[in-house]
Amino acid sequence: MNKILFFAHLRDEVGEESVQLEVAGKTVAEVKAIVAEQYKVAKLDTAMTAINEEFAPNEEVIQDGDVIALIPPVSGG
Amino acid sequence: MYEIAKENIDIQSVIDKVVQREAGAITTFIGTVRELTKGKKTLFLVYEAYESMAVKKLEQIGTEIKERWEGAEVAITHRVGRLDITDIAVVIAVSTPHRADAYEANRYAIERIKEIVPIWKKEHWEDGQEWIGNQLETVSYPTGKPEEGDLNE
Fold it and tell me: How far apart are CA A54 and CA B97, in angstroms?
């Protein structure tokens, strides 16, 4: 099982801070597609992804237990 | 040295972290909440962070600075929660043996924060509110991550 975290506008759109999904073996790109479909969120193509708190490319494969964060363009500072 | 703060940031305490006998200069950057952006009046901001990762990314920025500017010490504290106009959002202190490096390294730190640290601001105006992506959405990440050079070291 994998925990998927949402932040900023994505959290507002999904209505949850996190959800549990079974996505081990899938790539980051596939996870984004699943999330976009299931939760009807737009703008996922501009979101970065972190696996276990480190940025990960679209091709990276998810392992069981990985924590996945969908990170909209940041605006700190 | 790297913190996400839920209360007011004490500027002096950030500066104190980078005091070192080898330093000839300390530069301090204080980011504050601006009232007007392109003529639009902000009432207040709410900052949110993916806190555990944000601290790691601030540490990464510190590591990058120490690799580029020899002898540098870096401390960064970023605020989260509701901030009113003129409140302090971020404090960056950098000490180095010579002043030019302290200025350059401090500028580098704030620019990197705006690229890789998972912190977001929500602007509240008189007529609404919105999470701000990178200003004007001039940057997108079609590959799903920051481009070459934005990743770890």
Answer: 32
Distance CA B17, CA B100 (A): 20
* B29/B139 Cα distance (integer angstroms): 24
CATH topology of domain A2-71: Ubiquitin-like (UB roll) (3.10.20)
The ipTM estimated for the assembled molecules is 0.94
Say whether residue B78 is in contact with chain A using an 8 A CB cutoff.
yes
SS3 A9: helix
Residue contact A57–B119, C-beta within 8 A: no
Q: CA–CA separation, B86 vs B51, rounded Å?
A: 23
Tell me what pLDDT residue B146 has: 55
With 50 as the cut, is the pLDDT of residue B153 above it?
no
**What gap in Å lies between CA B33 and CA B51, rounded to an integer?**
20
Domain residue ranges of chain A, discontinuous segments joined by +: 2-71
The alpha-carbon gap from B21 to the nearest alpha carbon of chain A, in Å, equals: 29
Q: Domains in chain B, start-ordered, CATH in brackets?
A: 2-137 (3.90.1170.40)
Instruction: Mutation target for A interface from B46, B106, B120: give the one with most A CBs within 10 A.
Output: B120
The predicted pLDDT at position A67 comes to 98
Residue B38 is predicted with a pLDDT of: 85
